[in-house]
Amino acid sequence: GNPYEKLSEGARERIQERVDAFHEQFAASVARNRDMSVEAVNATGARTFMAQQAIDNGLADEIGALDDAITAFGATLSEGDEQMAELTQVDLDNSKAAGKAEGLAEGIKQGAAEAMARISAILGSDAGKTRPTAALNAALKTSMSADEAGA
């Protein structure tokens, strides 16, 4: 639609679809955050409530000042900081070293498995069976892939 002509039925329907979609998102968000069903949220009819009515309808927890709510919320954000403060630099360094050692061991294991598969592929190829000495040399003394060694 635009301000210079009457709203067409198609435009009205598109706008209504968006309004309905926003309503569904909002109702789902309220339901999730207030531990309510979407049906219960929709049953409020999108009305506004006085403070006590909002509590009675499960849409608020208590009546209070905005500054108090913000302060309380801020306190919940810093609660996790205490656990982080208990980790010392030594603990962090030890964790990093253990992770690095674990990664290195896994890398060595994976590399060995890939090398064994490469050697087996070279020695087991048709070219490897007809020229075993050349295949053994290619498998053990080069970094050629199985495809390159068989060519």
Task: Write structural notes for this entry.
With 151 residues, the protein is mainly alpha-helical. The chain has two domains: 9-64, no CATH class; 89-150, no CATH class. The protein contains nine helices and no strands. The protein has helices spanning 9-34, 38-43, 51-56, 66-78, 81-85, 89-124, 126-130, 132-141, 146-150.
Features:
mainly alpha; 2 domains; elongated
Shape: elongated
Secondary-structure-based class equals mainly alpha
Low-confidence stretches: none
Could you tell me the strand content as a percent range? under 5%
Give me the count of strands.
0
Biggest beta sheet summary: none
Q: Determine the number of helices (DSSP H or I, runs of at least 4 residues).
A: 9
Which bin fits the share of residues in helices? over 70%
> What average pLDDT do the residues reach?
89
End-to-end gap: 69 Å
Order of helices and strands: HHHHHHHHH
Specify Rg, calculated over alpha carbons: 34 Å
Q: Count up the domains.
A: 2
